[in-house]
Structure formats: structure tokens, C-alpha cells
Amino acid sequence: EILDGAGKYLLPGFVDLHTHLREPGREDTETIESGSAAAALGGYTAVFAMANTTPVADSVVVTDHVWRRGREIGLVDVYPVGAVTVGLAGKQLAEMGTMAAGEARVRMFSDDGHCVYDPLIMRRALEYANSLGVLIAQHAEEPRLTQGAVAHEGPNAARLGLAGWPRAAEESIVARDALLARDAGARVHICHASTAGTVELVKWAKGQGISITAEVTPHHLLLDDSRLETYDAVNKVNPPLREASDAEALRTALAEGVIDCVATDHAPHAEQDKCCEFAAARPGMLGLETALSVIVQTMVAPGLLDWRGVARVMSENPARIAGLDDQGRPIAVGEPANLVLIDPDSTWTVHGRELASISENTPFESMTLPARVSATILRGRITARDGKPEPRDEITGAF
Length: 399
Ligand code: DOR
Ligand code: ZN
Ligand code: ZN
Hints:
Blueprint: E1 9-12, E2 14-19, H1 32-41, E3 44-49, H2 60-73, E4 77-80, H3 96-101, E5 108-109, H4 119-132, E6 135-138, H5 143-146, E7 151-152, H6 155-160, E8 164-165, H7 167-184, E9 188-190, H8 196-207, E10 212-216, H9 218-222, H10 244-256, E11 261-262, H11 271-274, H12 291-300, H13 307-322, E12 339-349, E13 368-378, E14 381-385, E15 388-389
Parallel strand pairs: 2-3, 3-4, 5-6, 6-9, 7-8, 9-10, 10-11
Antiparallel strand pairs: 1-12, 12-13, 13-14, 14-15
Helix pairs in contact: 4-7, 7-8
């Protein structure tokens, strides 16, 4: 089979360290099947499915289910993220070792959406993870500073009467966890960095030789809290959209390598959970199908990253952070490859109802964005082409 690559770029398949696929528990908003299609269309060949499902992915039963379901669908490698604690934000460490030794070979743990808050639990979790050779990804949020908060604490929220989520809620946990990782001699990964202060702290920690990595979402690179004006809950997300100066600091940090990679925090939500009052709506935004275009718009177009850099922040670095040895690296001649073919010159207009996700909560609705995925290839097999997923042949089951 021949794909026409004239005028296009061929990159290693993208790796998303942070996706909410909602299965099990909220299959009305996304399933592993619909989310896999969205991932393939976005150019991804591996996604990490976050642990805040129902039931929580705090046991090998759930993590192996997610893994097997992903393999069955075969559009993208779905790596389950295990919960650090029993239940989210729990007080007891989950059986990370059992999940790591299961069929899914879980290599990343988080309580995403619920900070691993207690410092003693975090310290023990880092030590345990270090002994297992797995990674802890931290949703950095000091919950006592964010109770009731719905938007970034700043002039915009104040004017609109929205309760504020201070930068310190994120930064205090980033600083704490960098120090805990130092003391434990362990690695820590910071989810969705959203402030200029987090950038400074990560830079400082790296300078100290601490094993810290960080991701940034496309929405925190492109959008800021000036969007709150309309009170449209599609703009509600955790951590919240910050100020334009934060977004600028995040773009610079990604360009300079202080922030290692892009992760979507793809967070599907039902219409009824997003159409209500801002304060009552659930936080989260779709991201898988728009990530590349937003990175081209925010990073490539202004000259902050070249295409080599896109491969680094969307494929190679996340693959390295998660310890995937079959992603984001040069491949030998004849070896089945994970690839994404990109048309850099085409543009498209985003419409939530046209996305493969079951949910429609894209903050980029009606925006015209650059670059499209022409095809995604998983181990040599086309998984998406020209805007349509290509499910595996049911009869042969061939990859
Ligand atoms: O906006 C968010 N949505 N932030 C989180 O941390 C969790 C996520 C979700 O699960 O919807
Ligand atoms: Zn989170
Ligand atoms: Zn998340």
C-alpha cells in the first residue's frame, strides 16, 4: 500500500502521557473505542489512560482490562495509568507492584484530578515507585487553596465574580514534590504545568540535578483567562486557563526544553455537565484531535519550534519519560513502524460535533487551525487516514 508523502512531513507517532478515556464508568462521554479513534486521528500511536475512572484504576483488574480493550480495538496502544492510592486521593498506597507486573505492565501512576496530597503518602509513593522502576505523575494542586475555586485567581475572575484558583496551589506542590523526589532519589513528572512560577521551579529543580519532568497542554499554550468573559463552561479546566503571561512563559519553556513534552489532558464531558452554570460545570476539555494543530499554531508558526522539535515534544520525549522503547525512536530498516504523516499546509475548522470523541467539549470550536494528520501508522498498519479511523480487519485481526 502506498501513501503519497509529497509535500508532507513524516514524524514518529505521537505519545500522549495524559488522556482521560472514561472507561470504565462514564461510557456515555468516551469509551476506549471512541477515544482510540480520536487518538489515531490526532496522530497518536500511544496514549496513557488516566486512573480516575469508575471504578478507579487502583487494581490490576482495572488496569489489565483497559490494556486488553485497547489491544482488541487496535487503533492505538492504550497504556493504563494506575492510581497511586486505593481510591483517588486516598491514604493507602495501591498495589503498584501488582499492576506493574500485570499484563498491562503499568509504568505510570497518578491520582489525576486528585493531587497525591499527603506529603508522607507522596514520599512513600516515590520510594515505592523508584524501587519498581515506575513513574509518578503528579496533578499538582494544594486542595486547601482550591476549595470552591473555578477559575484562575486574577483580575478576570475577580471582575466576573468567579472564585479563584491561585498559582500557589500548583507551585507549592511542584516545589514540595521536587524536594521529595530529591530526597527519595526518585523521578517525578509534573502534569499540565500551567504557570510561569511552575516553569521557574522545574528549571531550578533540573538545575539541582533532580529527576523531574513536566508536560504542558495545548490549551494552556494557546488560551488564557480572557476567555472567561462569556461564562461558557467549555473554558473551565483544572488547572485553569491562566494569564497571557503564563501562556507565554509555557511556550518559551517548551521551546527551551524546560518543559519536556506536550500532553493533552483530553477530558471528555457530557453536554449536561458543561452547559450549566460555570461554577457547577465539570472541568476539562477535549484535546486528542486538535493537539497537533494547536502546537503548529502556537509553536511552529511563530518559530519557537521546528518540525524536528515537534517530534521531540510530542513523540520522543514523552516516550522516553514513560519508558516506552518501541515509540519515538529511529527504526531499523524493515521494522514495523509507528508513524504520523502530516500535511503542514492544509487548514481545518474545528467543530466538536464532527470529532470522533463521543463528547463535544472542545475549546477550539469554530477556530481554523493549521496542519492536518494525513495518516497514522501503528506497527506498519494504517490506523487513520484522511480524517477517518481505519479499524482493524475483524477477520484476520492483523495489526
Ligand atoms: O480539567 C480536568 N479534567 N482536570 C483534571 O485534573 C481531571 C480532568 C477530568 O477527569 O475531567
Ligand atoms: Zn490533572
Ligand atoms: Zn487529567
